Fold this protein.
Amino acid sequence: MTEAKLIDGKAIAAASNEALAAEATAFAEEAGAPPCLAVVLVGDDPASAIYVRNKGRTAEKIGFRSIKRVLPADASHEAVASEVAALNDDPSVHGILVQLPLPAQVDASAIIELIDPEKDVDGFHPLNVGRLAAGELERALVPCTPAGVVALARDAMGDDLAGAEAVIVGRSNIVGKPAAHLLLAENCTVTIAHSRTRSLADVCRRADLLVAAVGRPALIQGDWIKPGATVIDVGINRAPPPADASPDARPRLIGDVDFEPARRVAAAITPVPGGVGPMTIAMLMRNTLTAAHRQFEARR
Ligand code: NAD
């Protein structure tokens, strides 16, 4: 029995970052300073701290300037807002990312709306959401994880995705909805399925390209997949270690797709970890360079 090709997100992200490093050098020579990404972290959530550290490390590795602003967990809404305003006003900063989630006393939607849309490298500002929905991709900054999904789909299916039946399971603002808009812009026929979808298995079986962004371990079964489909698994779930594992074994990370059975049906599939995960930071770097170019051109 043939097994699906594994879509190697780690390698594709590394290649993208390598290309970006060369582009960053060229930008710095022309503009007199490198692309600059500023990340705002509020509080001491360990997972958020790791994400922020990884973003900073990747930025520096590819020759970007990286700025980190850390505020205490009890920082007021006004304190976070004034940090964002200062970064908006700093012409040497090209990208601003406020690490989510924010503590309860900070109004996250209001903070996102304060970010200069031209520096909104997460693509969450309503203006960028609107530009993406309107198909104005040359003016938008688009969310990083969905951009990574499209890059992986292209790697497996070729650059022309036109006409493919794409089914996205999940309708969040961070992954599902923007992934749908991006795939529509690629001329796919797009279906968004969600927690109230009837006959989810049948809907999934239509997909040439199946994107799972649910957050339910191994929800998508092998027999929900059309033979020869490409499967992109965005889910990151902690599964308990197997019963026979040693007592100090750590939980494993698994996706939303039941991997082994799916692998026997699909033509190409992303592993978890090592699929979509590494692409998110690579796309953040891509957005930062795009933002830097646009700001440099606008000031010429
Ligand atoms: P979310 O909880 O905001 O949205 C989940 C979506 O799944 C909802 O739209 C809901 O309608 C749908 N859903 C829930 N149960 C369902 C069911 N039984 N059947 C069908 N649909 C169902 O989650 P999110 O932020 O979009 O993230 C989804 C997953 O992707 C999570 O596991 C998250 O950790 C992961 N994620 C990974 C990355 C990355 O790789 N860098 C980035 C973001 C999110």
Remarks:
- The chain is about 40% helix and 15% strand.
- The pocket of nicotinamide-adenine-dinucleotide is lined by residues 145, 169-172, 174-176, 193-195, 197, 200, 213-216, 219, 234-237, 276-277, 280 (CB under 6 Å).
- The CA atoms of residues 151 and 279 lie 8 Å apart.
